[in-house]
Amino acid sequence: MQWQPIGKPASIRAAANLRDYTATCRAFDWTAARAALSGLPDGGLNIAHEAVDRHAEGARADHVALRWVDRTDTVTELTYAELAERTNRFAALLRELGIHRGDRVYTLLGRVPDLYVVVLGALKAGCVVSPLFSAFGPEPVRQRLVLGGASLLVTSPALYRRKVRDIRHQVPTLRHVLLSGATGEGDAPALEPMLTASSPAPSLVSTAPDDAALLHFTSGTTGTPKGALHVHEAVLAHHVTAAYALDLRADDVFWCTADPGWVTGTSYGIVAPLTHGATLVSDEGDFEAHRWYRVLDRQGVTVWYTAPTALRMLMRHGDGLAEGYDLSALRFIASVGEPLNPEAVVWGQATLGLPVHDNWWQTETGAIMIGNFAAEEIRPGSMGRPVPGVEVCLLRRGAEGRALVTGGRVHPVTAAGEEGELAIRPGWPSMFRAYWNDPERYASAFADGWYLSGDVARRDADGYYWFVGRADDMIKSAGHLVGPFEVESVLLAHPAVAEAGVIGKPDPVAGELVKAFVSLRPGHAATEELRLELLAFGRRALGAVAPKEIEFDPDLPHTRSGKVMRRLLKARELGLPEGDLSTLEATR
Questions:
Q1: Would you place residue 112 in the very low, low, confident or very high pLDDT band (cuts 50, 70, 90)?
Q2: Which fold has domain 475-574?
């Protein structure tokens, strides 16, 4: 089906932060854009200072920084001055505990006020912050704590009991675990009494733009998860892209629904709106259609950043549900995490009175790279065009599906409509600076002066980009990037499983579901009872990224080197052409 572009009224174009895309791209310079931030007196830069302290020290001290809605709909607010004081206390507490500049401070929390205090306070102390997804099972939590060499973890009492207590002794670097709220447990003391006793005095370590600040883990197709390391200079990209791609301003009430354990929940769920001096809405509750409409209504949300899965779930409840709520304050809707189907863009226009603006970026990019802008027309189904200051191209792909590199050179795609691997020219401030303790993996992400994203896209004649798929086996499920290797490794730990192959299966709501194909060891029968046991086994260890479907297959396809061919499993599952089988093992 052909979808008509959605144009913008002159009034919207005139009021937008980015009013002339072409002229802004031509004139944009990251060095000049730095003037929007205050910086530190010695020339340094610190994310927490730009997000909190500079507002707390000025005219916005009494402006609401954080508006938290708990599960009972009770609202708690923190002004910029109050947030500055609490983050000062946490930074001071870290010093008292012997946690120093460069040490890794982890969070395993939902959307609660302590999350924002811990993240921003740790950045003030010069620590490296690593947020974890609260729906992870114990094994992904343990693995990431070990990989990053965690020194301190802040989690909730419930999450501690379910996911941390039994694996804590397996993390030799972990010196402290603090529990949010007022109640501790054994050698995991409560955070609140410790904050109350610590100093509220300004407590900012002077950090340089290139000092490490954020460690975000993202799954890989093979091997362990990758720890993408970002620096304090990333705050410049957070600030600029929020202004351009989200049209964010100081008087906005901003709601980002992303889980704080993912990069979106940090870059735009914490940092970006606060750098603009806006009010950040944080909802502790889980998705429920009436609840989300109620938050939009009661909190007067003006800019809403959410995920395609959530929008599709709202669509399933019908157009009439939104009519019972006052959404008149809402002026901009954006979506990220997975491809946004054209129907959702048009639904937003018809039901909410506003189209949904898709955008594209990754954990490694740290900030939005491609977007649909407030003053520009939307082409439903398109990711949009590159953010000013970001240079993007498409590269021809070789036999393995990844960018073709010959003699150290890449080969750009020039024809409109032709597919290629999306690549970005390094130089934007939020580009990751390393994979934690894995320089070879980091080097392999670049070729001939380009960062290789692993995503396949096409570009039309006007420079709009359209997502096609992944060049590798990564699974995009409900906005989460799931590594098949991690899921396969857990299934192989079950005594009945000999081999496993994991793929993403298309799903109308989640985008993709994780499906596992399993071959069994001798002596184990492929029964429904065992299938349910394996599903539960996966959920206990992996949590939200566990497989939703398991199929027994005694003859998984292998390459001649012995690897399970996920590509072939997916082709057979979807009834697609099997492609080149020259590397397929002839016999078992």
A1: very high
A2: GMP Synthetase; Chain A, domain 3 (3.30.300)
